[in-house]
Amino acid sequence: MPRGRYSLHDPHDHTPLAHEHFQCAPGPSGWRYVSRLTTPTGDHHGSVDLTLDALGRPLRLELHAADWQVRGAALEGVTWVRTDPTGSHATEGNVPAHAFTGTSPAFLIATTRLLRLTPSASATRVRLVAFTDPVLAPRTVDQSWALLKREAHTTDNGPLTVDEYQVTALDTGEQHSVHIAGDVVLAAPGIELEDLETPPSTFD
């Protein structure tokens, strides 16, 4: 069960945003990721709880940020309920999309589990509902993912397979790289792995 800490920063000006303390593991249903977020000064900032099924679809998502809350799942596309800080107003949403995304590294792992790309395959288009900080506002985004290469690296704990993905935002054409080992993000825009207590899990 990998556990560790990511630092999240603005990918454009590198302003520190939060630390995400996480643990994740494959399980009977698929894969689960839980984390708590703290500000750079150590204050509570939010949390993430994401469970995927064996095919990489979101069985259950619960996000908290600035007293806003989102609960969602894959249901006739993706469906969610967003609650305001007072708890008096809840809005439902449904979009014919494949999965969710957001600032947490969990969503990058989730997308790769859903797409199951191989290095020889062409780029695959995916529609996602992104929940944007700081109020978890939903926004539908279209991306293209391609697995550029898969490399094995020697470590003290045995070989570590690292996948390099190219992600393209289809509305702007902007491209960036994401490096993932098992169920841990090693590097991505706005994400830095600062601490990892145990090696990444491997998927069949």
Shape verdict: globular
Straight-line distance between termini: 15 Å
Structural class: mainly beta
Number of helices: 1
Mean of residue pLDDT values: 94
- Ranges where pLDDT stays below 50 over 5 or more residues in a row are none
Description of the structure:
By secondary structure, the protein is mainly beta. Helix content is 5%, strand content 61%. It is built from one helix and 15 strands; from the N terminus they run βββββββββαββββββ. It has one helix at 105-115, and strands at residues 3-9, 16-26, 30-38, 44-53, 58-65, 68-74, 78-83, 90-95, 99-101, 124-132, 137-155, 158-169, 175-181, 184-188, 191-196. Strands 8-7-6-5-4-3-2-1-15-14-13-12-11-10-9 form a 15-stranded mixed β-sheet, covered by helices on one side. β12 and β13 (175-181) form a beta hairpin. The longest helix is centred in the middle third of the chain and has 11 residues, at 105-115. It is globular. The chain starts with a strand and ends in an 8-residue tail after the last strand. It comes from Streptomyces galilaeus. This is Glycolipid-binding domain-containing protein.
Outline the secondary-structure elements:
Blueprint: E1 3-9, E2 16-26, E3 30-38, E4 44-53, E5 58-65, E6 68-74, E7 78-83, E8 90-95, E9 99-101, H1 105-115, E10 124-132, E11 137-155, E12 158-169, E13 175-181, E14 184-188, E15 191-196
Protein name: Glycolipid-binding domain-containing protein
